[in-house]
Structure prediction request, 196 residues.
Amino acid sequence: AGMFLGAGSVMHAMDDEVDMRRFGGLAKHMKITWLTFGAGWLAILGLPPFSGFFSKDPIIEVAFVGEGWRPWAFGTVTLLGAGLTAFYMSRLFFMTFHGEKRWGTRSDGSPQQPKEVPALMTVPMIILAIGSVALGGALAIGGAFSSWLTPVVGESPHQDPVLPTAAIIAVNLILVLLGIFLAWRQYAAAPVPVEA
Prediction:
């Protein structure tokens, strides 16, 4: 939700422009949006200690539960999905907020001057960013996050994955960091053409 509001904030500041190739360098003009969007970005990547870590990693671990080929196939797919998510979400973050500015003129010919949106938009983004940073860890205390649907769906027997949990977490983090690095190299460190 915070990232959706952040996208709306950027669109508002950029006069309803939605082409990320025409953004870039917005971090210095929209610091609150950059910080709050960044919190959501880190959470959706599932990096510890952000909230997404407490939901994404257990899903990947459960994908590695079972017998025969299934845990290996499903677990591998979830890990590849985590790496791919890290790449395309990092692409979004870097193309929008980092690198050189690629914006120019408004539809009326005047120069674009993006600036932070009003408090009506930034306050909800700040509240949601706090959730992105801390809510997953708070709900993980005592297993509340993983057991809140138990009254509806019943108890689920615990099964161990075919790989040690620490190994799954480590491989996941390596793939996520690789996705971030590849996106940074392509969309923050290198020039991004305005035309596809």
